[in-house]
């Protein structure tokens, strides 16, 4: 993994689109069933749009019906971080890129085997590298 990415708010605004900044840096969310990757089926690696850290492989992606890309396990545990999120009068587990601290989405315990987990990730927080 790369050294931890630290940028000022202005640097992030210059690098990211308005929607990426809203989700990655301000912990927003995109509307369900609208993101580029919610029904994406190509083989490859999903990376953090903020810093390029590899996060998920297409082999772990599944259709959860929630409207956001869903994965049952991260590519490497060390590339993500989990924090308790108590916003919106709920208690959830937030998923962050460990390298740049970007908000990716949330994790739930209603996913498929073998992990039983559902990493519910905003498309706008991801870049995709197609398998060759």
Question: What does this 3D model show about the protein?
Answer:
This protein is mainly beta and 132 residues long. It has one domain (9-130): Peptide methionine sulfoxide reductase (Metal Binding Protein, Guanine Nucleotide Exchange Factor, Chain A). 11% of the residues lie in helices and 30% in strands. It contains 2 helices and 9 strands. The protein has helices spanning 9-15, 18-25, and strands spanning 44-48, 54-57, 61-62, 70-71, 80-85, 92-97, 103-108, 118-121, 126-130. A 6-stranded antiparallel sheet has the order 3-4-8-7-6-5. A 3-stranded antiparallel sheet has the order 2-1-9, with no helix packed on it. A hairpin with a 7-residue loop joins strand 3 and strand 4. The longest helix is centred in the N-terminal third of the chain and has 8 residues, at 18-25. It starts with 8 loop residues before the first helix and ends with a strand. The relative contact order is 0.26.
SSE diagram, text form:
Elements: H1 9-15, H2 18-25, E1 44-48, E2 54-57, E3 61-62, E4 70-71, E5 80-85, E6 92-97, E7 103-108, E8 118-121, E9 126-130
Antiparallel strand pairs: 1-2, 1-9, 3-4, 4-8, 5-6, 6-7, 7-8
Average predicted confidence as pLDDT = 94
Q: Helical content, roughly? A: 10-25%
* The CATH topology: Metal Binding Protein, Guanine Nucleotide Exchange Factor, Chain A
What count of helical segments does DSSP give?
Answer: 2
Which sheet architecture does the biggest sheet show?
6 strands, antiparallel
Q: Give the number of domains.
A: 1
Low-confidence stretches: none
Beta strand %? 25-35%
The secondary-structure element order is HHEEEEEEEEE
**Side-by-side strand order of the widest sheet:** 3-4-8-7-6-5
Query: Which CATH first-tier class would you pick?
Result: Mainly Beta
CATH superfamily: Peptide methionine sulfoxide reductase
Report how far apart the termini are: 22 Å
| Secondary-structure content class | mainly beta
> What is the radius of gyration?
14 Å
β-strand number = 9
Shape: globular
CATH architecture: Beta Complex
């Amino acid at each position: 993994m790369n050294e931890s990415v630290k940028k000022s708010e202005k640097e992030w605004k210059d690098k990211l689109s308005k929607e990426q900044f809203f989700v990655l840096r301000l912990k927003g969310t995109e509307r369900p069933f609208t993101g580029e990757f919610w029904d994406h089926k190509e083989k490859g690696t999903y990376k953090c749009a903020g810093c390029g850290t590899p996060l998920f492989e297409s082999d772990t992606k599944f259709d959860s019906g929630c409207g956001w890309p869903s994965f049952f396990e991260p590519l490497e545990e060390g590339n993500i971080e989990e924090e308790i999120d108590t916003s919106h009068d709920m208690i959830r587990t937030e998923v962050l890129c460990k390298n740049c601290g970007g908000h990716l989405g949330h994790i739930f315990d209603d996913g498929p085997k073998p992990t039983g987990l559902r990493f519910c990730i905003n498309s706008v927080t991801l870049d995709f590298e197609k398998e060759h």
